[in-house]
Amino acid sequence: MQTRGAVLREAPGKYEVVDLELDDPRPGEIQVQMAASGLCHSDDHLATGDVPCGIYPMAGGHEGAGIVTKVGANTPGYAEGDHVVFSFLPGCGRCRWCASGHQNLCDLGQFLLAGCRPDDPSSFRLSFDGAPVGQMSGISTFCEHTTVSVHSAVKIPDAIPLEVACLTGCSVGTGWGSAVNSAEVKPGQTVIVMGIGGIGINAVQGAVHAGATHVIAVDPVEFKRTKALELGATHAVASIEEAGEIARGFTNGQGADSTIVTVGVTTGDHVAAAFATVRKQGTCVVTGLGDITKTGVNIPLGELTLFQKRLQGSLFGESAPSFDILRQLELYQEGVLKLDELVTTQYTLDEVNQGYEDMHAGKNLRGVIRYDA
Distance from the CA of 99 to the CA of which of 67, 90, 214, 321 falls in 20 to 30 A? Predict the structure, then answer.
């Protein structure tokens, strides 16, 4: 079938909405009519070239939800009309990582930027003018319709609005899990969250849910600081240095129990500044991305060793999406996890570049593309 989708022809570049040819689903695949897609910073990293793609054109989008319209042959468990959220990280359920409870590290993740079917690197579900088009994370949620592996889909209750459910496919789990899983926040602790965008605001929520007494949000944009306070932060400041001083004031001069780095374009300097704010045996969690080819973090090695500090990377907040997406949506239904409040602006597919301009201008916590808009 034909569908419209936002693609990158090169990097650096901008998204262009074009008509694409979309494959019907094969066994183990479903075709989905998209309802909504979050405008995550990672897709902007593709556009800037911070994260290089394996093929161009590449159809963007990796945070989305929709309704199943076709089911591939011999694909049990799915039917037309099912509501699904996509996980940007697939879970095969069989590799070492899935089997040991680390689904976010599933071996299928190696194909996320290749854009191809994981079982056949020469096969692509999308094409443009007869040439193959890659799918970001194998799901390409910046398309009106998409065909994906069931390894990337989680069925959800029909009653949950898809325009907010889509956020659990990346930003909610990444931020919430960065606090709950990677930082292992405990009741009574002091936590700093550095960078209050789509990921950072959910790290704030995660730290609050885990029982942190003090949650200090850091962002230079006043709008984001205000939103952090509305969603549970106890303090909101413009600089990491000020946050460190506040944390030391609560901990007899020791520092934060954990600092979570969710800056949109993360550098080694951000990590070093965050590392300096944590106490002995504290944890600095690095969740944000920047230029993934860059190396070097200027931290004192003696402080790392003698203070037993921990520097911890976090992919998708160490989530198990087939479980955690449904758990987070249950928390939303119970009124514990805020999702509606995260969506600042809704856009049409043709406004995708405007959405990213607004993100860079600090106007949004999360922009969302609505396909019925």
Answer: 67
Residue type, 177: G
Superfamily for the 175-315 domain: NAD(P)-binding Rossmann-like Domain (3.40.50.720)
Reported in sequence order, the residue ranges of the chain that DSSP labels E, i.e. its strands, are: 2-8, 16-22, 29-38, 58-59, 64-71, 83-86, 126-128, 131-135, 145-149, 153-156, 190-194, 214-218, 235-237, 256-261, 278-286, 310-313, 343-347, 366-370
Residues 313, 42, 132, 76, CA torsion sign: positive
Query: At residue 89, what are phi and psi to the nearest 5 degrees?
Result: -110, 120
| Residues in Cβ contact with 89 at an 8 Å cutoff, skipping those fewer than 6 apart | 103, 104, 106, 109, 112, 137, 315, 316, 321
Mean pLDDT for 37-49 is 94
pLDDT (mean) for 343-363 = 96
Buried b (16+ CB within 10 A) or exposed e, 272-304: bbbbbbbbeebbbbbbbbbeeeeeebebeeeee
pTM (2 d.p.): 0.94
**pLDDT per residue as tens digits for the range 202-256:** 999 999 999 999 999 999 999 999 999 999 999 999 999 999 999 999 999 999 9
Residue that has been written with the tokens 């319209």 in this structure: 69
Tokens of 370: 């609505």
Please provide the CATH number assigned to the domain covering 2-169+339-370. 3.90.180.10
Q: Which of 190, 246, 196, 187 shows the shortest CA–CA distance to 217?
A: 196
| φ, ψ (nearest 5 deg) of residue 367 | -90, 145
Tokens of 154: 């989680």
Q: What is the pLDDT of residue 373?
A: 47
Fold agreement between 2-169+339-370 and 175-315: no
Structure-block tokens of residue 277: 């704010």
Q: Torsions phi, psi of 312, nearest 5?
A: -125, 120
Contact 332/339 with Cβ under 8 angstroms? yes
Q: For residues 241 and 216, is the Cβ–Cβ distance under 8 A?
A: no
Extents of the domains making up the chain: 2-169+339-370, 175-315
